[in-house]
Each structure stands twice: as C-alpha cells, then as structure tokens.
Amino acid sequence: MTQTTDLTKTNSTNYPGTVKEYLWSWKETSIKVVYETTGEGTPVLLLPAFSTVSTRGEMRPLAELLSPNFQVVTVDWPGFGDSSRPRTDYEPSLYHQFLTDFVGAIFNSPVAVIAAGHAAGYVMALAQSKPHVWSKIVLVAPTWRGPLPTMSKQQSGWHSIVRELVRSPLVGQFLYKLNTAPSFLSLMYRRHVYTDAAKVTPDFIHGKWLVTQQPGARYGSAAFVTGGLDPVKTRSEFTDKFQQLAMPVMVVIAENAPPKSKAEMEFLAELSGVESRVIPGSLGTHEENAVDLAKVIKSFI
Asked: How far is 100 from 229, CA to CA, in rounded Å?
C-alpha cells in the first residue's frame, strides 16, 4: 500500500514547487520517496542520473525552464537524495519495480519522461513491459555501465567484493569517506561531469558533499559505483530495449562526454526510429547545460 503526503509546509528548504512524500514498500521495508511538482499543464517526469551525489536537485534548472509550459515532476530515487536510505540490497529489480509503481500511482495517463544517465535503462525496460506508460522518451547522456565496470575491461567478481566492503561498518565508512571527500568530488566533476571548471566552485562542491553525508548514503552509492545498479550487462541487452517501441525516443548526446560513454550514446543514436541531438557538456549536461537541453526537449515533446 502506498500513499502521498504534502511536505511543502514542513520542509525547511525553499523549494520552488510542491514537495511530497510517496510511501513505497519493498520486501517488507517501507521507503519514503520524496518528489517535487512545479508548473501547470501536461505532466512531464524528470529522473535524475544515478551517482554518489544523485538528487532531484540536479534536475531543478531544467524543471524551472520547463515549468512555464508543463507540470514537471522530479523525484529522488530510493536510497538517494532526500528519499529513505535503508540498509537493503540496492539492485535493478528494486528500481524496476519502484518506477513501475511510482508512475502508476502518480500519473493517470501516458507521460513524457526525461531520464539522465543510468535512469535510461529503467525507462526503456518499462517502455517494453508497459508500452502505454510513456508518451515520449528523452534520454540525456544515457549510460548503462557503472564507473568500475566502465573502467575495467570486463565484468569481475571483485566489483561485488568492493560493494560489500563499502557496506561494512568500519572499513566501508572509511572507503566511502575517501570516495566522497570534497577534493575527490571536485576532481570527478572536472574530469567527467562538468565541462566548465569555473562552475565547480567550493560552494558547489560543498552542496554535493552534503548530499553524500546523509545517513545510509553509502549503500546506494556503493551499488551504483560497482555496477550493482546496471540495468543490463551488455550493449545488446540495452539496444534490445529500443526495438518495436510504441512511443517516440530521442537520445541527447553530450558532446564532451568521456570517450567510452559517448561511443555508447552515438551507437544508440544510430538505431532505427531513434532521434538524436547533440548539446555541449559531459555526463552532467542535464544540470550544467539545462538551457540547451530545454530547447531540444521542447522541440521534441
């Protein structure tokens, strides 16, 4: 059983929209999922990328640009952002089921979806299993492999070993602290996420660091980094999700994305029936270049 609660009046942060809480159950665990609605009109769902600093806040610049024309809904994935972070096994089946349940509970007609990064695989899986859920799909800098599998040549058992180490009480807390130090976050943003280093200010990184310091934050993060949230294991499994779709799909390629990631985006753009656009930016282009992204989204949906 699920229910929603309006948090706008009780939330201390000055949000531009209405903040609500969606209570969802997974394997007898109750998970509080926080989502935000702004604007009026035809609904659009924005799904942030999975990452150590994943939060619906990264979609807010885009939401503000779309809100004059649409009712925009942004959500924090279970285990990330302001949503609950229980010590559970974060795995693809959890997120497949969550997305199915959330969309069914919040929307009463097909909805356009904008999915960043790893969210793409979950959106495409739902498009195959429930063809009439989405009206249109926009995939922004889509990815399907986590950081460790991308860096290594093949899938390896040591990824799961690292995952369990990070989940452990003492060693895990130490490893997670190293991986979320402001200096490390700044390095990653400058290398892979943003293209304009001037935007990666100490205040900006401090805000991202605060996201990582929430109780239980390391569990979902460890799963993502080690490939535990990869919705598929091979490129062919991913591209199979694009076959015989009932709705239009657009892939937005980040012009300055890391070579391996960009190659995967370009491969998707060549698939039959898939439209594509190229905009500046890297893996965080949905946040850094929201103006460019909003233009191509409006022309598509």
From this structure: 16
Distance CA 116, CA 216 (A): 23
Q: What six digits make up the tokens of 73?
A: 């809904």
Hey, which residues does 277 pair with through a beta bridge?
Answer: 252
Contact, 46 vs 74, CB < 8 A? yes
Q: How far apart are the C-alpha atoms of 41 and 39, rounded to whole Å?
A: 7
Q: What element of type H or E holds 274?
A: strand 274-279
The number of C-alpha atoms within 13 Å of 81 and in the hemisphere containing its C-beta is 26
Rounded Cα gap, residues 149 and 151, in angstroms? 5
The model's pTM is 0.91
CB 134 within 8 A of CB 126: yes
Using H for helix, E for strand and C for coil, what is the string for 84-107? Answer: CCCCCCCCHHHHHHHHHHHHHHHC
Pairing of strands 134-140, 29-38: unpaired
Pairing of β 111-116 and β 70-75: unpaired
Collapsing DSSP to helix, strand or coil, 174 comes out as helix
Work out whether the CA dihedral 122, 127, 132, 136 comes out positive or negative.
Answer: positive
> Which of the four pLDDT bands, split at 50, 70 and 90, describes residue 148?
confident
- Count how many Cα atoms sit within 13 Å of the Cα of residue 196 in the half-sphere of its side chain: 10
Tokens at residue 61, please?
A: 């610049």
- Tokens describing residue 196: 């304009």
Query: Which one is predicted more confidently, 155 or 222?
Result: 222
Q: What b-and-e string marks burial along 159-177, b requiring 16 or more CB atoms within 10 Å of the CB?
A: beebbeebbeeeebeebbe
